[in-house]
Amino acid sequence: MTALGPQPPGIPVPSPSPVSAPYWDAAREGRLVYQKCAGCGHVPPRPSRRCWRCGGGELKWLDSAGTGTLHSWTVVWRPQHPSFVTPYAPVVMAVDEGWWLVTALVGCDDGDIREGMALEVQFHPAGGGIWLPYVAPRA
Amino acid sequence: MPHPYRDVAIVGVHNTAQGRRLDGHDSESIAMEGAAGALRDAGLEAGQVDAVVGTFSQELVLSFGLGPCARVPNSLGIPAVLQAAQMIACGQARVVLMAAGGAAIYTDRSATAPWTRPANEMVVGYGLFTAAEFALMARRHMLTYGTTPEQLAMVAATIRNNAHVNPEAVYHGRGPFTPDDVLASRMVADPFHLLDCATTSEGGCGLVLAHTDLLGDVAGRPVWILGGGSDSYGPAYQIAPVWEMTGRTDEPAGRVGANAARHSYRQAGLGPSDVDVAELYDPFSFEIIRQMEVLGFCGEGEGGGFVEAGHIGPEGRLPVTTDGGTMSFSHPGINAQQLQRVIRGVQQLRGTCPTRQVAGADVAVCSNGGSGALFTDVLLLGSGRP
User: What is the tens place of the pLDDT at every residue in B269-302?
Assistant: First the structure.
């Protein structure tokens, strides 16, 4: 059993694009945001200018409650890059608003991971002015 | 209506030496060796080549003095083979040369291989790489259908043992492996142990396709394209790899390749029971279990039981990845490792595999990609003209 925590600064960090900047700006303020198509309600899997489902161009940024359940996970022992502290646990959270977030699980031991466990988002600085959304078990 | 690939034959294939390191080579130089070997195998002259497809296409034109020559850069693996076949079928080309290779690109061994960790802003901060992406898909299958680590290990042991006996494999003589050996190897990305994962290596390869008018010039036995298709659910390694994600149909991303397989069988006028050997892309052990299902060899969720029953072994109903695959034959970078599935399929149908030759193999299915990459390509090859 090993405790899972956020990565210390020094890991490779995202370079926001003009399309994704609102996502990372919000993360820096401690908010998880997502886009929803005004036309069909679809949530695109990553920041976009056009809806992936209907092609509509009106995607609104919305605040997420940051809560959801654990959909899938892995525990990594061989890091992608030596700057990562192992083990770390990439996960997919099924977000309560009906979209999927790829993130990493913190705040529990690797042996405590269970399908469907209730999660909530928290933010940690990754360096370079980037704050990463992580998820932790909900009390 | 005649079969669209009736006048197209795969006439030359070649793998260069494969190894953990190939001293003195870079990716281009080893790819050019692959192309030269494929031309030699075909018995054709460089001067007969009028089109090149895929990686290093422009370098091929220069290195072999092919100009003026048609080229389609940037396509990979099975889609590139299909592109080459279509160029011949529609009369744009008569002889198409393809080359791929990787060498001297994996130099920082403290990180995973460069081609396993494409940088993208939505995943880079979480340390995702191919093993983790495929693990997120495998986990869903394990949760939904009860697929076990032991079943995954059985896949890995089977394929690694195919390399163990193959003198051309990077990991020749390194086994034999039992499923327990796989389970005892160190964990990389749960549920994948080290031996559940592809290796990394260096090597090159080449293919030549030609119009049937040229078969009189060709040295070896031609192999035929009976059907092929390609499924994608979006850019690989950039978004959460979610099994249940859907696009224009109800078929989930976890079943990527099922649509391509149905198309391929339809085009061939064949079904899964006609396939003699499966040269499948094996980046991670689980992917073979999933591909058994999407290629129609068993029902949804039955892939674990299918491999546990021994069907994919050399004496089984459907021998899989008979050279040792990306796990143990070679994994030299994005295009070569994909084309090598096709090359092995050709060798099986020619009956020229020095090891693990499937006696009398007439139909081979080859695949590329996998669920964690959100794409799967399918190619059906035959020993007889369609």
Answer: 999 999 999 999 999 999 999 999 999 999 999 9
Confidence of residue B102 (pLDDT cuts 50, 70, 90): very high
Q: What is the pLDDT of residues A35-93, one digit of tens each?
A: 999 999 999 888 999 998 888 889 999 999 999 999 999 999 998 889 999 999 999 99
Model pTM score: 0.96
**All structural domains of chain A:** 15-63 (no CATH), 65-139 (2.40.50)
Q: Do A102 and B186 touch (CB under 8 A)?
A: no
Cβ distance A13 to B191 less than 8 Å, yes or no, reads no
Q: Do B139 and A14 touch (CB under 8 A)?
A: no
Band of pLDDT at residue B334, cut at 50, 70 and 90: confident
Sort out which chain A residues have CB atoms less than 8 A from B125's CB and list them.
Answer: 7, 11-14, 126, 130, 132
Q: Which of residues 140-199 of B touch A (CB under 8 A)?
A: 140, 143, 186-192, 194
* Nearest CA distance, B64 vs chain A (angstrom): 38
Distance between CA atoms of residues B374 and B231, nearest Å: 8
Given CB atoms, is A113 within the 8 Å cutoff of chain B? no
Residue A88, chain B, CB below 8 Å: the answer is yes
The domain segmentation of chain B, as residue ranges, is 8-106+201-217
Pick the CATH number of B8-106+201-217 from 3.20.20.450, 2.60.40.1220, 3.40.140.20, 3.40.47.10: 3.40.47.10
ipTM value of the model? 0.96
